[in-house]
Design goal:
alpha+beta; 39% helix; two-stranded antiparallel ribbon; five-stranded mixed beta barrel
Length: 297
């Protein structure tokens, strides 16, 4: 008598979520984003899981000893699983046959990360900041980019949870793209205030370093949920405003940050400068194009 598929030893392969195929035997480490205990039609408990690694997420199901398995982990943990990939309602899922908590594994290690080299992006960011010659704005950028802790947070943060640049390192990737596009735009339209626009491009999403938390998934922080990244960014900039940044320049920069998602953020519902309008449009181009590349048109 041949053993059933669930009793057969599983191959010790550890493909990523993006590489999984139907009927593949899989052994690997994943983060548990969500877990729910349900009941089958026969009255037996089972678990539904959402599992993730750096390349994506996939549902999982635990039908054998569901309650005992559930006691081994909590949502947010990293787990080691063995199972088989199956197709259910035209989507792949993993029939989990064994599951244990992965000791010593930080779930953040299983979050998606930027495709581009972060050191290279850091270099581009420094180069763009050097294009700013206004004394007050340059001093502000030095206060922001010269803060080692803040700089590390800029390198780590995503831009969103499920939209554009929704991965660790997404913020600096997006920031460099927007600032580079703004630099090119100033070449085409010399009436634009290059110093103001490039500075605004570099700091427009700074509040995202406080908007999210990181565990098995990227989630909103309390600050992010209640205030949003625009207000958080203005707070961070105000705390680092240098004495040499005069009030008119500070107001012009703050207006650009405040309206980078549209003029509805101000009472007049009008852009107060060409630079604010330019930042809004350029930000939207990079964000929407990146979203289309990752999620489709």
């Amino acid at each position: 008598m041949h053993p059933s598929p669930s009793d057969q030893p599983l191959a010790a392969t550890a493909p990523t979520v993006a590489e999984l195929t139907e009927q593949q035997l899989v052994e690997g480490t994943f983060a548990v984003v969500r877990s729910e205990r349900l009941m089958s039609r026969t009255g037996q408990p089972y678990l539904t899981l959402q599992l993730r690694d750096r390349t994506g997420t996939i549902p999982g199901r635990v039908f054998r000893d569901a309650d005992a398995v559930a006691a081994r982990f909590t949502p947010g943990d990293a787990v080691r699983i063995r199972g088989r990939v199956e197709r259910f309602r035209d989507a792949l899922q993993i029939d989990v046959q064994q599951l244990v908590r992965a000791e010593g594994v930080d779930p953040q290690q299983l979050l998606p990360t930027a495709y581009r080299d972060l050191d290279e992006l850091d270099g581009f960011l420094d180069h763009l900041a050097q294009e700013v010659h206004d004394a007050g704005l340059r001093a502000l950028l030095q206060n922001v980019l010269g803060d080692a802790e803040l700089r590390a947070q800029i390198r780590r943060a995503p831009c969103s949870r499920g939209g554009h640049h929704a991965y660790l390192g997404g913020l600096i990737e997006h920031t460099v793209a927007v600032a580079q596009l703004c630099w090119e735009l100033c070449e085409l339209h010399p009436r634009l205030d290059r110093d103001l626009l490039i500075t605004a491009a570099i700091v427009h999403d700074l509040g995202k370093i406080r908007e999210f938390t990181y565990a098995a998934a990227i989630e909103l922080s309390d600050e992010g949920r209640l205030l949003g990244h625009v207000e958080l960014g203005l707070q961070l900039l105000a705390a680092r405003r240098p004495a040499e940044l005069a009030e008119p320049r500070w107001l012009a920069l703050s207006h650009c940050v405040l309206t980078h998602h549209g003029a509805d953020a101000v009472p007049t519902r009008q852009f107060g400068s060409f630079e604010a309008l330019a930042l809004y449009r350029v930000n939207a181009v990079d964000a929407q194009l990146k979203f289309a590349f990752e999620h489709g048109l």
